[in-house]
Write a structure and sequence with these properties.
Structural class: mainly alpha
Number of helices: 5
């Protein structure tokens, strides 16, 4: 089975997610599928190179997340935050 590769454009992805989720009635549900995909994804070369910037941007966006989305967003951050880019692939 093939796995997806993680990639994010750090300068915009997290902020766009926070903005989009502000207007959704169930933002925690919207984040379920990306959480599942990210948990089974391997590291893209780009993610390895930008790991620290992406995690910092995601943490900053947490402040703008709706309250019901914050636990799921924190879980999304925790996965890549706990792994070194040279680790799990």
């Amino acid at each position: 089975m093939r796995t997806a590769r993680q990639h994010a454009y750090a300068a915009a992805s997290a902020d766009c997610a926070a903005e989009l989720l502000q207007h959704h009635s169930h933002p925690e549900v919207v984040l379920t599928k990306p959480t599942d995909v990210l948990e089974s994804a391997s590291w893209s070369l780009r993610f390895q190179q930008d790991h620290n910037e992406i995690i910092a941007t995601m943490q900053h966006a947490l402040e703008r997340m709706p309250d019901q989305a914050k636990p799921v967003w924190s879980k999304i951050i925790a996965g890549p935050e706990a792994c070194h880019p040279d680790g799990i692939r």
